[in-house]
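Sample intake sheet
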Amino acid sequence: MAEKHASLKRQQRISAFFVNLTLIFICLLFMVPIFGIFITSFRQSEKIFNSGWWTFFPHKVWQETGEIKLDKDVDLNGVISFTLEDGTKVEGTYAILKNGVFLKDGTKVQYIGAKRTRTIKLSEKRWVGFETDLTLENYKNVLTGKAISYKGEDGSILTRNGTDLSKSFINSFAVTIPSTIIPILIAAFAAYGFAWLNFRGRKVMFTMVVALLVVPLQIAIVPVLQDFSKVNLNGTFLGIWLAHTGFGLPLAIYLLFNYISELPRDILESAFIDGATNFTIFTQLILPLSVPAIASFAIFQFLWVWNDYLVALVVLGGGNNEVVTQTLANMVGTKGQDWHLLTAGAFVSMVVPMVVFFSLQRYFVRGMMAGSVKG
C-alpha cells in the first residue's frame, strides 16, 4: 500500500512538472511578440527597415575587411582570376562572384556593382554587441505630437507633425472607468436580488439575463445606435457609457450571482435578526465579501472597453472624442511605414491594461471559481 501511494505521488509530481513546463513554454511564446514590440519602440526608423528587432542582441554580421580593384586587362566575360594578400587564389565567373564566394576561413569574396566597377570586396562575420543607440524620441513623438524629421527618397529632409496620443488616453480613461464602475454597481444590486430576495418572476428574469450573453454585439449595436439617434446621445460620453453598461451587464450579473449565492446564509440571517435592512446588508456585508468576484469582472470589463474599437467608432465617432484604439488605427492608415511610432503607441496602450490586470490578478482565480464547485 505504501509503495502504491509513493508511486501515485511520483506520477503526480511528474505530471505537475510537465504541466508547469508546458505553461512556461506557452507564456514565453506569447512574450516573444510583446518583447519584440517593446524593443522596436526604442529603435530608430532606419534600423527597423534594415534589420529585425532580434538584432538588438549580440549577433554576427558581415563586416568589410578589404577591397580589391581588378586591373583593366582582366577579362570580365570569362573566368576572373585574382590573388589575395595572403596568397589565396580566387577564380570564378562574374555571375558566381556576384553571388559571393566563400573561402575555407569563412571570408566572403563578392563582386560589387556592375562590371564597370571592377571592385571585389572581402568581408567576414564578426560579433557585435547589444544595440546601444536606442532612443526615447519615438515615445515623445506619439505622446506629444512633436514635429518629426526624416529623410525622403530624394535625400531631402522632410518634416511633419507626429500623432498626439495624450488626448486619446484621456478620452480612453473617460470612457473606460465609468463603463467599468457603472455596470459593477448595477450588477451587484441585481445579483443580490436574484440570490437572496424572493419576488415573483425571479427565475424567469434571471434566465433572460443569462440568455442575453449569447446576443452578438454586432447585431445589438444597430438598434442601440438608432435609439441613441432619437435621444441625441450619438457622439457623447454618456451614450458610450450606456452602451458598454448594457453590453457588460449580463456577464456581470451572472458572475456576481454565482459568487453572492454561495456566501454563508448564517451571516445574512444574523444580520436580519439584528434588524439590518437589505441595503445595510448589501453595503456592509455583500460588497466587502464579493471583492474577488467584482475584481474578476472589473478585469474583463476594463480590458474589453479599453481595447474596444467598434463601439467607440460607432457611438463616439472621431474628432475630439477619439480614443486610443481609433488613434492607433488612424496611425496605421497615415503612418503605416513608421513602425517606430506604431510600436511605441501600441506598447503605451498595452501598459494600462497590464497594470490593471496585475493589480487585481490575486482575486482573479477566486472570482472565476465562484460557484463552480457545489458543497
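Comment: Residues 1-40 form one domain. The chain has 14 helices and eight strands.
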